[in-house]
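Next comes this protein:
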Amino acid sequence: MKQLSSSEIRQMYLDFFKSKGHTVEPSASLIPVDDPSLLWINSGVATMKKYFNGSVVPKNPRLTSSQKSIRTNDIENVGKTARHHTLFEMLGNFSVGDYFKEDAIKFAWELLTSDDWFGWDPDKLYMTVYPKDADAKKFWRQVGVAEDHIVEAEDNFWDIGEGPSGPDTEIFYDRGETFNNLSADDPENYPGGENERWLEVWNIVFSQFNHEPDGSYKPLPRKNIDTGMGLERVVSIFQNAKTNFETDLFLPMIHQTEAFSGQKYNTDPKLDVSFKVIADHSRAITFAIGDGALPSNEGRGYVIRRLIRRAVVNGQKLGIDGGFLYKLVPVVGEAMKAYYPEVLKNSDYIAEVVKSEEDRFNETLTDGLTLLNELIAETKKGQQKEIDGAEAFKLYDTYGFPVELTREYAADEGIAVDEAGFEAEMQKQRDRARSARKDENAMGVQSDLLIGIKTPSEYVGYTQLHVEAARVTDIIANGEIVDQASAGYAQVIFDKTPFYAEMGGQVADQGTVKTADGQLVADVTDVQHAPNGQNLHTLKLVAPIQVGDEFALDVDRHFHSKVEKNHTATHLLDQALRNVFGDHTQQAGSLVEPNYLRFDFTHFGQVTDEDLAKVEAIVNEKIFEEIPVTTVETDPETGKKMGAIALFSEKYGDVVRVVSIGDFSIEFCGGTHVKNTNEIGLFKIKSETGIGAGTRRIEAVTAGDAYEYLNGRDNLLKSVATTLKAPQVADVPTRVDQLQAVVKDLTSKAESLEAKLAGQQAGQIFENVETINGKTLISGVVQVSSMDQLRQLADTWRQKGLSDVLVLGTQVGEKANLLVAASDEAMKAGIKAGDLIKAIAPKVNGGGGGRPNLAQAGGKNPAGLNDAMAAASQWLENQA
């Protein structure tokens, strides 16, 4: 067997099919583009759909790729089996109506057995075929496969319902008897069975039928080949690995995890599962975040969050405290750099995202695991078979524990989770969220009504804001297509229009519809895109209209101009953010109104005032440089070559608009813009906040709104100066410093007096020592201003060794605070401060906890403080 690395194997596969006339397609992003049916790219063929369904004709019908893919349907099995993964690479060769069964089999045999390529022993290869597929069996014989190495299998037929389908052939590698995990007479002990000896490495699908609605199968006029070879499995064969995890695709992460944990891989089967989970998940999250996905509570973001949390929990099982997963990101990048150099290049950003999410989870993980372990113990103690669904939901809702993690953790202990109970609690939460939402605007017209409207409409607003004669082609009123409308609201399509339809975060134009002699017919309150691309105007009618009428259309120029300024400013802001934070920063949404702009962007980590000042300065610098703003129409590929930034979330047609602000900013954009940056006048950031994990929001104003905002701030500062009796605004900082010094002095004096008072009270309380059940107790309610002062009293008590147990309470505002301390002798006798605080906190309607030597609690019932002191005495009385 040749000694090859994973990168050499991948490249050999691609080179082979390139030599057979195939075009090598690059590995596409894990985030599907224009395919809402997929959460992730989950196979090589998923990126080829457009070719197989005929929507796009490939320049070359022969294609090959090594496609990174994610599947999470069997996530619970990852780490527990030899070959389950979340992220994997699928090597594939594809024929779109070109070669078919005979050539596909010849190619496969040559790649696998030729000494120029893989060079595997032919005697170790077995093929399964569909029993009725005589051609496949014949072609395998022709290339030299022995009869007893061809196995018929009824399930060798690829069929997902209506659509293309056909038989397939699978190729298995015989790893030898040493890998056999079954007895000789086991019915699964054959190539194609569920066993460890015969490893499936390649599946070749012969797409030759169309599964008709009536259940019949008709031959396709154009037959296709779709194949899939798991790189991880092939590498395990070349590297003689027991499982996929003992290969160079996973071992770097496993070895690094050994260093983090102090544990050794391949010494304990239970620990090995955790090593494998961490190695697998670190790869998946690194690639997913590198392709633009971010942790969140839904969709693919939830998958990332779940993988991170599952890995962190397994790190805890290995004894790793604190963040570690983010440190594996560059290890993944280094291991995969031969084919995916961008991962290593972006590893700092990816690690930052992972660290942020990891830190968030670690904050609650310990408490969550403690509660989960208690639930498991209580469930076992009560001889129950499942964890209560409401408790599982509490873990999810309060501690961020995905129910899948709870299920897995519980399964390790032999118990289940009440799934129905959990789902009932989840539904209650959904109902609460639903009832909190506002009703949608009822003005919208069902899209299916509009689908049939195909009359053309031309948008001319890029060059003119007035149309002298626009003809009404379609009217929708009261949810119906009508020929005329006379009052209220109606939605109208004109044959041409200067009104911009809302798109890409830019709000729609407003304006008027008038007769030729200037009589107002309607106000344009909104414009949206109809399903077939026309601009659909919402009109507030003041006079009747009917199909065929011609009117003058006028855009509100002031409104339009302000929106243009703000929209162009978002382009400057987008690039300024990249300049300051790095190229990983991407637009995550925007809203462009006439009076302000809102811009969301991806960024993990702190955004400082200094950072914002840099961003703001860059934008204003470009405004003051008076840079021309130009727009050209071209095709997407040419636009990308020009350096234009495109968004994955946007769908681009055959013709795109590329908006350039000098050489500073180049973007695909269908919005409207100023002709020169000097028209923006001024740019001012009003606020910057985080709106989710890894997503932040800037709100800003331009031109006159920026002036008004700054003027308002100036007036506010003048008002502060007057209040502070500062002669001039410039004296405000000095006056504030003086006042702070006075406040600091007064605070110090107040704290000194409080400490003196607390000392006097302590002297009185510390004298009252009672002996209960052989232990000495000091307890009482004191008048201090904070929990800090209670802790100071406890420090004094401990230094003087005044008793075995100390219990103090105080009222701060409308709340009660409790503190319990235990001496070393008391703890040796089994008395723990944490246990005592839990016993007395309910008296003040509160709860708390802490260490064995010191614990504290808070509550909402100060009137119960004396009862808490009495409860402490009773608790000591009851201690054995």
In short: Residues 436-447 have pLDDT under 50 and may be disordered. The chain has five domains: 6-242, 251-434, 447-555, 560-711, 753-878.
